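Ticket #330: bound-state structure for NAI.
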Amino acid sequence: MVKAVVLGASGGIGQPLSLLLKACPLVDELALYDVVNTPGVAADLSHISSVAKISGYLPKDDGLKHALTGADVVVIPAGIPRKPGMTRDDLFKVNASIVRDLVKGIAEFSPKAFTLVISNPVNSTVPIAAEVLKAAGVFDPKRLFGVTTLDVVRAETFTQEFSGLKDASKATVPVIGGHSGETIVPLFSKVSPGFQIPADRYDALVNRVQFGGDEVVKAKDGAGSATLSMAFAGFRFAEAVIKATKGEKGIVEPTFVYLPGVAGGDEIVKATGVEFFSTPVELGPNGAEKAVNIIDGVTDQEKKLLEACISGLKGNIEKGVEFIKNPPPK
Ligand SMILES: NC(=O)C1=CN([C@@H]2O[C@H](COP(=O)(O)OP(=O)(O)OC[C@H]3O[C@@H](n4cnc5c(N)ncnc54)[C@H](O)[C@@H]3O)[C@@H](O)[C@H]2O)C=CC1
Ligand SMILES: O=C([O-])CC(=O)C(=O)O
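RESOLUTION: The complex was predicted; output attached.
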């Protein structure tokens, strides 16, 4: 039995993500929670003739508690998206407390659930989630993930003309670091099957992966950021976690984790100096089984990208940790 929960289920990401989870035969029960509109979204999805039993909750009548009780996988796309001219960090003011409060609910009602954080800024919201779980005494680093899959999906898509693959998702194009601008580091030297990026296209391609989110924000012109591609990516990662819990072997996806709590993570902390980092992670029945170090042997160009990534990431992580350890006055 797998119970999946979406917190922020009525939003631009939440609705298509809930649709994909409702259609997934691996999901037996799906609970939707949001501050608005969940009864309608749940009623709509309930007419779909798939396996998952669906329910929708609002904050009233202990909605969060009922949504989370018995959860195996909780996906969080709650919070405001960017408008043109904003950075992801500009979302911190609003989204930090949204994520904090939802994760407090997870700590109380479903402390063993796999928690997948989509809400931006991921570089800070995941450290916030970790600190909340730590404070409640229920933090298991193998069960907390920042969802950076959209960066990987973009990298696969934007390199398709070089990989030559009809189905770009069949390529492995590792993207590591964090999830904003220069903290996003595609490792084109580590693609498989091996293919070459022409030198004169390298900078533009790196930039497109790092700032792919801006492309969508600009095109939506004030109506939000990536939602459909994010729902695809969020579902891909959630499905990978679910398949791994069911015993499927060999599933490796980049994700933003607390490295000291994951096997192999210390080596990456030593190499990067940061404790939260997105790296390919082998998934298993208990979540993040192993953090794979793919930094060794990167090119000089990639080393430079990593330096910029790490200096940006440090501040983002610190900001999230501080938000819980030394909360701002109300
Ligand atoms: N990790 C990633 O790669 C990506 C992350 N994002 C982020 O995902 C978040 C959501 O984006 P959209 O779905 O486009 O925004 P949206 O505004 O369309 O939806 C957000 C939903 O969250 C709900 N919400 C707000 N406060 C809540 C609370 N306390 N509890 C439960 N639900 C609450 C809202 O009612 C709304 O339905 C944003 O922070 C965005 O930046 C977006 C794309 C990619
Ligand atoms: O750009 C944004 O704000 C949303 C996001 O994280 C992405 O599309 O990668």
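RESOLUTION NOTES: The chain has a mean pLDDT of 97.
TICKET STATUS: resolved
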